[in-house]
Amino acid sequence: MKINATLKKEISRYAGLVVAGIINATGVVLFLASAGILDGGLSGTAMLLDSLATGASILSVFLVVLNLPFFLVGFRKLGFKFVLSSAVAIGSYAVMSGIYQACGLDKLIYAQTDIFLSAVFGGLLSGVGSGLTIRFGGAMDGMEATAVLFAKKVGLTVGQFVMIYNACIYVLACVALGHIYVGLYSIVTYTVGIKAVDFVVEGLDKGKGCFIITGKGNKVAAALNEEFKRGVTLLNSKGYHSKAENVTVYCVVNRFEIGRLKEVVSSVDPNAFVTIQDISDVLGSSIKFNRRKKDRKATRYKIQKVEEPEIVQLELPLGEEIENKKE
User: Mind listing the pLDDT tens digit for each residue in 127-156?
Assistant: First the structure.
């Protein structure tokens, strides 16, 4: 039974990778290639070579030839599963690109009438395809894998490595094709694509990690636990200058709950120090950032009536967890 569940999960994952490749091919061929714009990474390099190979329409061949060596080089460090997942996505991308080109869909007139719109939608679809590939455990472009392997060796971040490569490709395209608009619109495509990848990978509704430094840790924790019905973590802390003993309260909420959290905290301790940062994902919790639909009674933060939970004092260096109390 467990084997069947695992098998179904893997089949769904690889099916998702195939769909991601199809979406990417749709954006690249129907919008970008038709308008004469380049994608980023090795995909953009393949498009440039395909444009220079006049009348050949062999984008799919260039995609496979360019990506294969990079994944073979990174096989040991990236792992077999990652390379296989990437190969499925890129294979789907290459095959669908070949089909589109064979049907003459890489020279659509509508894409040439509004190049800016083609750049936006091509980048959007390409970003969605790449984002889905990342979510399913692969990479749509060998340049991303290369950046992970070699960026630190040359003193760059992954983002800087990819950006420099893309800048070189866009400049080369402007020179080789004789049109500066190719590079300019390709930058628009790349920008939209990056935002689309972030949206698919991280989601629109990111979690928010909240650190609250207060002298009334138990009361703040009790109030948050009562309001959000969610676990709260207490960490012992000490002010550097004041030498005052405080408690740092940590909890995760969604963006819709930030306002309520601020009200709860300020009603208990107006002097509390609060910091909030984005969280891309949460594991080991029932929180998927769904807004609670239960009736929120008019206990509009009458915190003075909330009894403090009993805390078991444990000598743990990282603090203790306040669990949800079931009445």
Answer: 999 999 988 988 888 887 777 777 777 787
Of the candidates 145, 24, 161, which has an alpha carbon nearest to the alpha carbon of residue 94?
A: 24
207-322 CATH choice from 3.60.10.10, 3.30.70.120, 3.30.565.10, 3.40.50.300: 3.30.70.120
Q: What's the angle, vertex CA 312, arms to CA 310 and CA 314, rounded to 5?
A: 155
pLDDT the model gives residue 284: 64
Handedness of CA 43, 45, 47, 50 (dihedral sign): negative
Alpha carbons 174 and 326: distance in angstroms, whole number: 66
Residue 321's pLDDT band, with cuts at 50, 70 and 90, is very low
Q: What are the backbone angles phi and psi of residue 235, rounded to the nearest 5°?
A: -125, 130
For the beta sheet containing 207-214, the strands, ordered from the edge strand earlier in sequence to the opposite edge, are: 273-279, 207-214, 245-254, 232-238, 320-322
State the CB neighbour count (10 A cutoff) for residue 40: 29
